[in-house]
C-alpha cells in the first residue's frame, strides 16, 4: 500500500472512530423518556409558552400562566393540579405569544408582581398584576416603534430582568429583524398613575437570519440573557445595559434536530445549576451547566439529554422550590402542541445525573 493511501486510510478510520465515540458519548447522557405527573386542561386554540408564579405566602397556591396563541387568544391560568382558574383567565388577546413573570415592581408605592405577554398582532406588551390578573398597562405598550417592516414589529419572545438595583426590564423579540440589534430592552416603571410605562434603553443581539429568535431567558443572579437563534444555537449577553452588547457565548450548536426553543434555568445556588433548552423536533430537552469552567466562565457543557412526553415544545419554565407534596424539589412546566401544558417533577428530570436544590 502506498504511503498516501495508508495515511488516507488512517485518517478516514480516525474520523469514523471519532464520530462513533462522539455518538456513544451522547448516548451515555440520554435518559429514558420522562412522563409528566400532571397534564393541564386544554386551552382553546394553541398552547405556546408557560410561566410559573410562586405564591410566597403559600407556595401550594402558586399559579401557572400559559399563552393560547390565536387572534382570539388568551392568557390561561392554572393551579398546581392543572385545572383552569376560570376567574383569572384573560381573554380577547390578539395572538399572545410568550409570557414571563417578575416580582415587586413598584406601582402606587407598593410592590406588584406582574405577568407580561407579547401580543403579536397589535405590536404591544400586555401587562397584568398577579395574582388577580388585572390589566395595568393602559391598554398595552407599543414595541419596536419606528420599524417600518411589519414582521420587524410582530412580537414573539419576552423575558423580564430584575437588576440588583431593583429595576425591572423587558427584553423583547420579534418574528424578524436585523443582523444586529434584534432584541430591544425596555425599562418598566410607574407612569405616575399606577399604570406601567416602558422606556427603550438599548438594542442588542446578533441574528443569523436562518429562522427567528423567540426563546429568551434571564438569569437575574448572574446577570445574563440567553436567547435561541433558531437552528444555530443559544447566545449569551449581559442583562445590564450598562455592561455593553458583547456576545459572551454561543453554545448548544450541535445535536438539535430542528429548532432551538424554550430556555429555562434551574438554580442550585446563586451561581450554579442548569440551563434547559428545548430540542423541539426530537421532543426532548438538552441540559447544560449554568456555570462555566475555570478556563472559560461562559462555557456551558452538555450534561444530559431528557426526552419528554410533551410534543413539539416551544416554551417551558422551571422553579427550584418545594411547592406541595407532588412537587417537593421543584416544578418543570413544558408546553405540548396538543393545547396543554405538562407538569414534571424536577427530580424526575434530574434523575441520578443532576442535583436538586432541596
Question: What features would you describe in this structure?
Answer:
By secondary structure, the protein is mainly beta. It has one domain: Neuraminidase. The chain has helices spanning 3-28, 346-350; strands spanning 38-39, 47-53, 63-68, 73-78, 90-93, 96-107, 110-119, 124-130, 134-135, 141-142, 155-162, 168-174, 180-190, 196-206, 213-219, 224-229, 233-238, 249-251, 260-267, 273-279, 284-289, 302-307, 316-319, 331-336, 340-345. Strands 6, 7, 8, 9 and 10 form a five-stranded antiparallel sheet that branches. A hairpin with a 3-residue loop joins β8 and β9.
List strands and helices in order, with pairings:
Blueprint: H1 3-28, E1 38-39, E2 47-53, E3 63-68, E4 73-78, E5 90-93, E6 96-107, E7 110-119, E8 124-130, E9 134-135, E10 141-142, E11 155-162, E12 168-174, E13 180-190, E14 196-206, E15 213-219, E16 224-229, E17 233-238, E18 249-251, E19 260-267, E20 273-279, E21 284-289, E22 302-307, E23 316-319, E24 331-336, E25 340-345, H2 346-350
Antiparallel strand pairs: 1-25, 2-3, 3-4, 4-5, 6-7, 7-8, 8-9, 8-10, 11-12, 12-13, 13-14, 15-16, 16-17, 17-18, 19-20, 20-21, 21-22, 23-24, 24-25
- Termini separation (Å)? 62 Å
The total count of strands amounts to: 25
Structural class: mainly beta
Poorly predicted regions are 1-22
The number of domains is 1
Question: How would you sum up this structure in a few lines?
Answer:
The chain has 358 residues and is mainly β. Helix content is 9%, strand content 45%. Strands 6, 7, 8, 9 and 10 form a five-stranded antiparallel sheet that branches.
Amino acid at each position: 500500500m502506498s504511503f498516501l493511501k495508508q495515511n488516507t486510510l488512517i485518517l478516514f478510520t480516525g474520523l469514523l472512530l471519532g464520530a462513533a465515540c462522539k455518538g456513544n458519548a451522547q448516548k451515555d447522557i440520554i435518559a429514558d423518556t420522562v412522563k409528566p405527573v400532571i397534564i393541564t386542561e386544554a386551552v382553546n386554540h394553541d398552547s405556546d409558552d408557560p410561566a410559573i408564579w410562586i405564591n410566597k405566602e403559600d407556595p401550594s397556591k402558586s399559579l401557572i400562566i400559559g399563552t393560547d396563541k390565536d387572534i382570539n387568544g388568551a392568557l390561561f391560568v392554572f393551579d398546581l393540579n392543572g385545572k383552569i382558574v376560570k376567574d383569572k383567565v384573560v381573554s380577547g388577546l390578539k395572538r399572545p405569544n410568550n409570557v414571563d413573570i417578575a416580582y415587586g415592581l413598584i406601582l402606587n408605592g407598593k410592590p406588584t408582581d406582574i405577568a407580561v405577554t407579547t401580543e403579536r398582532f397589535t405590536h404591544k406588551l400586555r401587562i397584568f398584576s398577579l395574582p388577580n390578573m388585572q390589566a395595568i398597562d393602559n391598554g398595552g405598550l407599543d414595541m419596536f416603534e419606528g420599524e417600518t417592516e411589519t414582521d420587524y414589529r410582530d412580537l414573539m419572545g419576552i423575558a423580564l430582568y430584575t437588576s440588583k438595583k431593583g429595576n425591572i426590564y423587558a427584553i423583547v423579540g420579534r418574528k424578524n429583524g436585523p443582523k444586529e440589534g434584534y432584541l430591544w430592552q425596555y425599562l418598566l416603571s410607574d407612569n405616575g398613575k399606577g399604570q406601567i410605562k416602558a422606556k427603550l434603553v438599548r438594542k442588542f443581539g446578533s441574528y443569523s437570519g436562518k429562522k427567528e429568535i423567540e426563546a429568551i431567558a434571564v438569569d437575574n443572579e448572574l446577570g445574563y440573557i440567553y436567547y435561541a437563534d433558531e437552528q444555530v444555537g443559544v447566545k449569551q449577553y449581559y442583562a445590564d445595559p450598562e455592561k455593553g452588547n458583547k456576545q459572551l457565548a454561543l453554545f448548544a450548536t450541535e445535536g438539535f434536530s430542528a429548532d432551538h426553543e424554550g430556555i429555562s434555568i434551574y438554580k442550585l445556588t446563586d451561581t450554579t445549576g442548569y440551563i434547559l433548552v428545548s430540542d423541539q423536533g426530537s421532543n426532548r430537552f438538552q441540559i447544560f451547566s449554568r456555570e462555566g469552567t475555570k478556563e472559560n466562565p461562559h462555557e456551558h457543557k452538555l450534561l444530559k439529554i431528557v426526552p419528554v412526553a410533551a410534543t413539539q415544545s416551544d416554551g417551558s419554565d422551571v422553579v427550584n422550590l418545594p411547592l406541595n407534596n407532588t412537587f417537593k424539589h421543584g416544578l418543570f412546566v413544558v408546553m405540548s402542541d396538543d393545547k396543554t401544558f405538562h407538569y414534571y417533577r424536577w427530580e424526575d428530570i434530574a434523575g441520578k445525573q443532576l442535583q436538586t436544590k432541596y
